[in-house]
Amino acid sequence: MKVIIVHGAYGGPEENWLPWLKSVLESSGFEVFVPKFPTPENQNLENWMEILNGYEKYFDSDLVMVGHSLGPALILRKLETLDMPIKATFLVAGFLGKIGNPDFDGINSSFFGKEFNWENIRKNCKHFEVFHSDNDPYVSLDHGKKIAENLGVELTLIKGAGHFNKQAGYTEFPLLLNRIKELI
What is the pLDDT of residues 57-104, one digit of tens each? Predict the structure, then answer.
């Protein structure tokens, strides 16, 4: 199985739980990619999609995608365009528009310029999971609830997980790992 992990704004492949998840999955035989997306300079949907499209050959029924923060928005935009479903998508601390923080709202705006095509998104992935915290300092729980509702899945609420980042103690994410491995 192949896994693509997408980081968020102001982030990168070496932050939070991403390197840990990559390492553990690779040691279990997964092929894992964690692309580096430009942020905050040159951060826009077009630039990020161009990088993600470099992994086009891996988009098939064996692909799992994992996104953190802004990462889910990119994944959802990609799912709108596919012509065959991927295996699963795990969205962590995602959002669907402005979060009320000018440092983020400006550079994130191109990801939310048009409504999401939820019918296509649901058609192009066999399994969705949405994780959110009750005390995220950046992204309110309402964003996670809205994503889960649009996907037709239950939200996995994790109390006290903040933004699922290093500052909240998330350098590992065992629950996410277990949920991915349950798909094998």
Answer: 999 999 999 999 999 999 999 999 999 999 999 999 999 999 999 989
pLDDT at 184 over 90: no
| Average predicted confidence (pLDDT) for the chain | 97
Radius of gyration over alpha carbons of the chain, in Å?
A: 15
In the β-sheet with 2-6, what is the strand arrangement from edge to edge?
Answer: 31-33, 2-6, 63-68, 88-92, 128-133, 155-158
What does the pLDDT average to over 47-59?
A: 97
Q: What residues are paired with 67 via a beta bridge? A: 6, 91
Ramachandran sector of residue 74 (left: φ over 0; alpha: ψ -120 to 50; beta: rest): alpha
User: Is the CB of residue 33 less than 8 Å from the CB of residue 55?
Assistant: yes
Structural domains of the chain in order of their starting residue, each with its CATH number: 2-181 (3.40.50.1820)
Relative to beta strand 63-68, strand 31-33 is: unpaired
Cα 58 to Cα 12, 62, 173: the distances in Å are 21, 8, 24
pTM here is 0.97
